[in-house]
Design goal:
The protein is an alpha/beta fold and 360 residues long. It is built from 14 helices and eight strands. Helix 7 links the parallel strand 5 and strand 6 (161-165). Helix 2 packs parallel to helix 3, helix 4 (92-100) runs parallel beside helix 6 (116-126) and helix 12 (267-308) packs across helix 14 (336-358). Bound molecules: phosphoenolpyruvate and manganese (II) ion. Residues 26, 229, 239-240 line the site of manganese (II) ion. One of its GO terms (biological process) is chorismate metabolic process. Residues 267-358 form the Chorismate mutase domain.
């Protein structure tokens, strides 16, 4: 992908004075439900009305969407409210139907992005379209897979492109349905700074109470927009009930969000920002230096263990370190989750070092 600036023309042309907003129910359930939500969203910041009509469900036996029938409902949304529409496509047949029915924006779901076969099938079916296509991150935190999917679309001549960050699934329990792994989204922005990036706080949180906070973090990180699942009766939604908000709540969220500009002309602000960034750079350098030193000591321990023929991993000692560091971290405002993650990574690197030494 060479000229990534052209990929955001569709967004720049909208000349929005707020982040792009995509909202609407997780699933289209009935014609009445779709139209009621659309009318309630009509006079708001919402730019695109979403509704899933083909629903990927983790286990069979759940509501799998109304299918092509819903495309007619989306047409009515456009006619009656003037809002543009979007839906998820997961294979060539979906693409064909969505294009025939003039859906304005198509997105590719997390369960499709993981499969290069599916991505290629969708890219081939979309070849040369001028519709907007957004690619959700794959369910697993694999940046290359995400970028690869976008590249397949680009190669198929699709130039109105963007990405949606919807978090990543993990085996470990967390307060999120899909953990955001913000550093991965930041890496994504560094690779393709011009590609529009939208945050989907609904699927990240899985819980409507946390949507505002995650949305604010996304805007603070210069995301271009939000996709938020919206339903007039969230608790009785046929899918993703816990994470949907009412249209009224959505409007409140949009009103309360602080929209920060990427570039600030005020020079006092720039100076303090530059200064703080410089401080961060210095501290980061020190962190690397200290970690290098720590690894040097771990190497010496490795030599000793080799001499005495002792196992690399000694879990009692490790649990002791962890307990102390969690307490120490707490007193400095670091969450247990972060301290655990960081020390697991450091410990793994020490084990790798020591294994190398012991195996010679
Ligand atoms: C959705 O947007 O309703 C959906 C199924 O999302 P994801 O692909 O992120 O799970
Ligand atoms: Mn959903």
């Amino acid at each position: 992908m060479k000229n990534t600036k052209e990929l955001r023309t569709w967004l720049d042309d909208m000349k929005l004075d707020h982040p792009l907003v995509i909202a609407g129910p997780c699933s289209a359930e009935t014609e009445e439900q779709v139209l009621k939500i659309a009318h309630e969203l009509k006079d708001s910041d919402v730019n695109y009305f979403r509704a899933g009509i083909w629903k990927p469900r983790t286990r069979p036996g759940n509501f799998e969407g109304v299918g092509a029938l819903g495309l007619g409902w989306l047409k009515k949304v456009k006619e009656q409210t003037g809002m543009k529409t979007c839906t998820e496509v997961a294979n060539a047949a979906h693409v064909k139907l969505a294009l025939e029915n003039d859906v304005d924006l198509l997105w590719i779901g997390a369960r499709s992005t993981v499969s290069p076969f599916i991505m290629q099938e969708i890219a081939d079916a979309l070849e040369g379209t001028d519709k907007i296509v957004l690619v959700k991150n794959p369910v697993n935190p694999d940046l290359a897979l995400w970028l690869g999917g976008i590249e397949r679309l680009y190669t198929a001549g699709i130039k109105n492109l963007g990405a949606i960050h919807r978090g990543f699934s993990t085996y470990e329990k967390s307060k999120y349905r899909n953990i955001p792994e913000w550093q991965l989204a930041i890496e994504f922005q560094n690779k393709f700074p011009d590609l529009p990036l939208i945050c989907d706080p609904s699927h990240i949180t899985g819980n409507r109470e946390m949507i505002f906070d995650v949305s604010q973090t996304a805007l603070d990180l210069n995301f271009d927009g939000l996709m938020i699942e919206t339903h007039f009766d969230p608790d009785n939604a046929w899918s993703d009930a816990a994470q949907q908000v009412t249209p009224t709540k959505l409007k409140q969220i949009m009103e309360d969000l602080k929209i920060r500009k990427e570039t600030e002309t005020d020079s006092g602000y720039r100076d303090s920002l530059d200064n703080l960034r410089a401080q961060i750079n210095v501290i980061d350098g020190q962190l690397i230096e200290m970690l290098g030193k720590r690894m040097g000591v771990a190497d010496k321990i490795g030599e000793l263990k080799k001499e005495k023929n002792v196992a690399v991993l000694q879990s009692r000692r490790w649990n002791e370190i962890l307990g102390n560091m969690i307490l120490e971290g707490e007193s400095r405002g670091l969450s247990e989750e972060f301290v655990l993650k960081m020390f697991k990574a450091i410990h793994q690197e020490s084990i790798n070092h020591q294994e190398k030494i012991i195996k010679g």
